[in-house]
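Handoff note, outgoing to incoming analyst
You'll be picking up this chain. Sequence as last confirmed:
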Amino acid sequence: MTQKLKLRVSAGSTIRVLHNTYSVPSRLIGETVEVRLEIEHLEVWYAQRCVERLPRIRGHHQHRIQYRHVIDWLIRKPGAFPQYRYREDLFPTSRFRAAYDALRQSRPGEADREYLGLLLLAARETEQGVDHALQWLLAEERPISRAAVQTLLQSAFELPQRTEVRIAPVALAAYDTLLSGAHGEAAR
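Most recent structure output, in case you need it:
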């Protein structure tokens, strides 16, 4: 049975559903949405259209914040990022986190604004492309910036191919010998 709730989207682009917090697209801030609760997911409806389908969180006082939902709001208020309650959810991969840490170390005054620019680029272009560019910049110990990542994306750079690992097939006859030797000793 589907449970339906009418909820108002907060100024932070979130809704609270059964003691858990979910992000929704920032264009819905201040609007009332209908949330349809299913067993495994929830659907957010606005103007008779399903605008978001999210996996349902188990437990209480947890959160699922998608950077794509809040980036437009955060980019207008970059000073809010360091104290953002759900900031840890805004690192889609470990490389994004490493890039933010590198920015804070090399350019502390501009780190938050520059990182939000990277997230905006990931939301507008491709998260995987930005992730690959960050991987390359970090591996080459190059300065990290939105401009550097954008240049790499526009140049259609190729990451070095992964190192191919070959594992020799296992000779199963060796195990037969071990087993027959163990049985032979046990019989004596």
